Fold:
Amino acid sequence: MILIQQAYVSANPQRNAELEWVREANRMSGLFEHIEAVDPGGRRLTFADLMRMAESTFAGRPCVIANSDIAFDRSIRAVEPLMTDAAGPQMVVLSRWDDDTAPSMEGRIDQTDWGFYSHSQDAWAFVAGSLPAFEAGFRLGVPACESRLAFEAAAAGVAVVNPALSIRIRHHHASAIRTWRRSEAYRGPLLFPRLTTTDVGDRKAFILDRSRWPARKEVVSLLGDFAPLVRRASSP
Structure:
């Protein structure tokens, strides 16, 4: 399994120390066959940048893209069998754990069955070259980037699953240093995959159309009932 992370260097010493600790922890873990630290050249990389690199360098191999402040434990090994599915292409997305109590609980609850549909994810796993083409030009670390990516993937026929109840990816950000503004958040259709264990079961998700997000208007639909939104998904 290949780990791909942006080799981000922060101007803040405290934040940079966190990132260096994560890089060393992942390197020493022995969980990955290879770790690719991608130099962004002073810019935020997009999912498309990293997916193209994975396909050109590691085609046919299981890859994990993760934010720079995410460290892994042995539970990540459970992700590999979930990257392929007989029904078609699949992408595993993972909500982070900030402590030992639960994954980051950002999202929406469906009060009809009390299912939780996750909004925030910090790692994305897939077999390089196995996914169909879809819009992925969303910059990592910008609010709602993962939800826009998930929508585009699902619209292209990819099953998006989030088994973060079983797989723990650890978020290290005690410094609370951030370089984005909420106004930069991606708009348009967003997909919230249901939070599950590795026994994925159903692949339910919520779609939120935030094309009119500044006016706080949104349209909610279940996965599979979002064809009208696909036509508006081409512009981030």
Observations:
- The chain has one domain: 2-230.
- Residues 64 and 125 are 4 Å apart (CA to CA).
